[in-house]
Amino acid sequence: MTKALLIQILLLLGIYTYGQSYQLDGTIKDRETNEVLVNANLLFDRSAEGSVSDRDGHFSVVLNAGKQKIKVSYVGYQTTTIPLTLRSDTSIVIYLTPYAPLEAVEIQEARQTNVVERTQMSSNRLTAKEIEQIPALLGEQDALKALQLLPGVQAGQEGQSNFFVRGGNADQNLILLDGVPLYNPFHLFGFLSVFNSDVIEEVNLLKGGFPARYGGRLASVIEVNTKKRQTEKWKHRASIGLIASKIATQGNLNERTSLLAAARYSYADIAFAPILAESFSRNGIDGSLRNSIYDLNLKLSHRVNEKTQLEVGSYFGRDRYGRREKREREGNIFENIDRLSWQNALAYVGWQQKWNKYLSSESKLYFTHYWLNNRDAASTDLTASSGVKNVSEYDLSYQAAVQDVALKSDFSYDRWEKHHIRFGGAVIQHFFKPGNFSQYAFIDNQQLGIFFEQDTTTIQNEVRPLETAWYVEDELTLNDRWSINGGLHFSTYHVAGKNYFSLQPRLASRIKLARTVAFKTSFAQMRQYIHLLTNPGIGLPTDLWLPATANILPQDGWQAAAGFAGQIGQTYEWGVEGYYKEMHNVLSYRAGAGLFDTRDWEAQVTQGKGWAYGTEFLFRKNVGRWTGWLSYTLSWSWRQFDDLNEGERFPFRYDRRHDIAITGSYQLNDRMRLSANWVYFTGNSVTLASGFYTTGWDRRLSGWSGNRFIDIYDGKNSFRLPEYHRLDIAFDWSKQKKRFFRIWSFGLYNVYNNLNPFYLRRLSSVKTPEGSVITTLESKVEAIGLFPIIPSISYKIVM
Amino acid sequence: MRKSSCLVAVIFALWNCNSLTEPIEIELPNFEKQFAVHALLLDKDTNLYLKIDETIGLDEVLLFNTNLNENLLFDPLIDNPSLDVRISKEDGNEIVFEYLPNEKRPDNFFGNNYIAHLDKPLGKNVGKLKLSIRGKSLPFAKAEVTMPTLVPLVSSKLIPNIGDGKHASPFINVDSVDGLNITFWDPKEKENYYELRIIGKSKNEESDILNFYISNYMTSLNPELKGGRSRFYISDKNFNGEEFSFTILLGLNSVSSESKIVWRSISKEWYEFYTSLSTNSLDQTFTEPNNAYSNIENGSGVFAVGNEIIYPINL
User: Fold this and answer.
1) Which of A426, A407, A366 is CA-nearest to residue A180?
2) What whole-number distance in Å separates Cα of residue A576 and Cα of residue A619?
3) Which among B51, B58, B288 has the least Cβ separation from residue A690?
């Protein structure tokens, strides 16, 4: 019945199959390590179709009977062509030979790019090797910072890992670690991502043309996949760097079970200690700062039989920041304590099943959790100047959390030669704790005769929305030039008696104009039921994840894109794309509201719309002594809120007219590699007072006496910071030792020491000569850059 | 190994050269000067005062007379000898203002003031008023307001010892605080705005009773109420045409027999200006800054009017 229905649907689509055809299943592996290769490209010569290996290195296609040639390529591996005669359903394993590792000199073989073959547009992929080659701040490679070098991805503040895709907000990026969402993928106030480069296999970025299987965010999907199982030998890695040290191990526990485990510990506070000590001492402060970070990755894979695989994975990461300052002035004591900690935890159980030669599935039960705890305390002892007891204390604590428990299943059906059908669904139970405040105040002032003590807690109600998502998608090859990917994504959301529904059509098309050039178009409608309430300034872990509620609407958006993708010879690939997108019901703080506002969060926010458009260009070389890419983005991003900026549109803070990144790596010889990247982009849009006026009036009317200074803003985000540019270089020096392979890495961040603005500050100087009533008030605005030229060093061993 | 150690030491030394981090100069955009006006008129006023100044660019130097709170770089007697300030009334009459020299200003009046003397109070039913300011060096500025209808209180009750421990504030001991319940009927016809003050007498001088504002209580439970510590601004957005009742908590300076409630029906401009000030100059790291409200065309500041009625507090 089901089969008949499916056939009818296909006939309705005007698609039919003909001739004898067979199923070809296969797995692509590394010849030396037996590791499976994810996203390897396959090209079948008779049908001129392409395919890509999945997360287990597996592929499955239906081909016409007879002789075939399969061309298989993968970054960093020699391209292989395999002749095959198909007379029945067949299973094969294809081994690819890697280019020599880092120490090798000759890398001559070019790779066959699949950029022309794929229907998917607006996507980029970075392998672990590529990420490792990019020079990094303080020598700590970071997958999310590597993404910032790709077209259409705008970096946030300097040094931070946060990013904005095609003019979207930070909360519109769905970041998945092995398919499980992570709510706050940052350590160290955003300066480091939670992704340990030693466990990463690859990072896939999708910024438009979303197939129906993706949902829940408007701007992008970032899939961070950890290394796959099936290595024959145990592999160990260890490294010591300026801000972090790591260890990782991967191998088989037995024939069927493999393990990946890694740990990382950061001691950034020790590295920054000399600077802080100098700063404290200069200001007469007895102070200390602690900032400890760690994260753990664990993955256990077990092959039950040829058709069934199980996987258990987890991640746990935590930041703990503490700052204490104590100063004494004329016997009076002032003390401040700040504590901030946050943690991410996720765990999942995965089940992959091949039901028959056509149908396979991957199901996952997961849990993801993000929690933060903030405490600010201040105490003052003015007894020395008062002569009698005069002490006060103030202590503010703040907690917030978000948590998901979800079950999702994805099915893949490959019965027909020209179709690749996927369908599936997910049920997600969210738990949001938008923030609880505890305040303690104590005053014992015998001078004024005041004794006061109060302990108050303000609890914001937990919100528990239930979200479901369902999809069906078909990758359809119409002929050897034209393929389309069409589908529907349907989602529901129930919160506090209110129901939301959304049907989101998705369509993408690829037409090969020539053997090496394709024209691609796409349209995707998206909805997301969660919001991130961010501070207008720097991205902080204190940003709040909030749910759509009966009063706060979900975010809706759509995006259309068109562009060309091509390759030059066997070595280079290029792409140019234009896009337009709209975002509705994006969230922002109301004017004057902010993190430390203890009101009900719904009273602090307002919703508006955004729209963005632009053009992106990428030119990339993936193989040879030289590898790297050049990317350029020309873009605009706008916001409009009825309650902000007098209802007028204003540029998004990260509206970047021009954004250029050049990154490259050159293999000098069998032991040395030189890498560099240069970035340039238009400065951020910020709100800055351009002038002010004074107003003084009688107390009867104004509520104040004397003058009051009132700032004048030309408009929200109307001021552009100076343009940003920076050059980084890195040098890797490797050697095969008796028992291990070692790599010294040296880096220079911001080589030509161009200070880029991190934040603005306004300075006012008031001078009144003695005996005069004339005061001179002088104001100025200056930007502070935090990152001058910064060297780095790290030592790594691989066994 | 020895070479490596030296290298690490050199790198740390380089890294700790924080003298490399100098502030970056920012070029500010051109700033066009305009009139800055602060003009609040009450129905019962016979002497109308306007404060007129000019806006100042952020990178300009301001010379200030601290005794007079006067911007010395804007002296209309020198810079704008022909500064023409007037208000046109709905009945066609005009009120012409003249510069008020410092020596003639009443106590607590600061800045460059203009004054107009009326034979009788401005009045509750004066209707629409149009302000115009002409000067030589600054653009012609104008504004328009309408006198609101006076809405009296239905009742005001003092409730001793209202503290229930729920309301957080480091300023107030909530276990012994007094409450003041205010009730009024809001007319339905249009948007209405109100201002509430409580004044006490200290050293024979009337002043605001401070510290009767509790942020949690006022904003979470009564979002209509805005203000801070010495007065409330109330919009009828959420209770248009209905009776509205609320209770405020009184702080350390408790009321006395000489305390009074100053209740005003104010124009929208009055409400918008004062409620926008709290978000005007703020640290941008944690909050969204906002322009102060202005209804001055080609200028900054506010021209607003209100009706006032004063009630005693019955102890």
Assistant:
1) A366
2) 9
3) B58
Distance CA A687, CA B288 (A): 9
Q: Is A286 helix (H, G, I), strand (E, B) or coil?
A: strand
Tokens for A271, please give them: 């590295």
The answer to whether A535 touches A653, Cβ cutoff 8 Å, is no
Query: Nearest-5° angle of CA A542, CA A543, CA A548?
Result: 135
**Residues of chain A neighbouring B280 (CB-CB closer than 8 A):** 710-711
At B246, which helix (H) or strand (E)?
strand B243-250
Pairing relationship of beta strands B299-312 and B35-42 according to DSSP bridges: parallel
**pLDDT digits 0-9 by tens, B181-225:** 889 999 987 889 998 887 776 555 565 554 444 433 443 334 445
SS3 A647: helix
Edge to edge, what strands does the sheet with A707-713 contain?
A707-713, A689-696, B56-57
Strand A163-165 and strand A153-155: the pairing is antiparallel
For residue range A526-562, list pLDDT tens digits in order: 999 999 887 654 445 567 788 999 889 999 999 999 9
pTM (predicted TM-score): 0.79
User: What is the distance between the alpha carbons of residues A380 and A481, in angstroms, rounded to a whole number?
Assistant: 75
- Check whether A30 has a pLDDT greater than 90: no
Whether residue B111 lies within 8 A of chain A, CB to CB, comes out as yes
Distance from CA of A329 to the nearest CA of B (A): 24
Two tokens at A482?
Answer: 């034209």
Phi and psi at residue A619, in whole multiples of 5°?
Answer: -125, 125
Q: How many Cβ contacts (< 8 angstroms) between chains A and B?
A: 254
Which sign does the torsion angle of CA A603, A645, B186, B257 carry? positive
Q: Do A244 and A192 contact (CB within 8 A), yes or no?
A: yes
**Comparing A601 with A155, which gets the higher pLDDT?**
A155
**Contact present, B230 and B208 (Cβ < 8 Å):** yes
Query: Which residues numbered 239-298 in B keep a CB inside 8 Å of some CB on A?
Result: 252, 274, 276-282, 284-292
Closest by CA to B71, choosing from B119, B36, B39, is B36
Q: Which of B33, B167, B288, B307 to mutate to test the interface with A (most CBs of A within 10 A)?
A: B288
Query: How do strand A173-177 and strand A220-226 relate by DSSP bridges?
Result: parallel
CB count, 10 Å around CB of A738?
4
Q: In what order do the strands lie in the sheet containing B153-159?
A: B153-159, B178-185, B243-250
CA distance A461 to A723: 43
Distance, in Å, from the CA atom of A507 to the CA atom of A525, rounded to the nearest integer, reads: 9
A737 in helix, strand or coil? coil
> Residue A490 corresponds to which amino acid?
F
- The DSSP-derived string for B66-96 is TTTTEETT--TTTT-TT-EEEEEETTS-EEE
N- to C-terminal Cα distance for chain A? 55
Q: How far is CA A690 from the centre of its chain?
A: 35
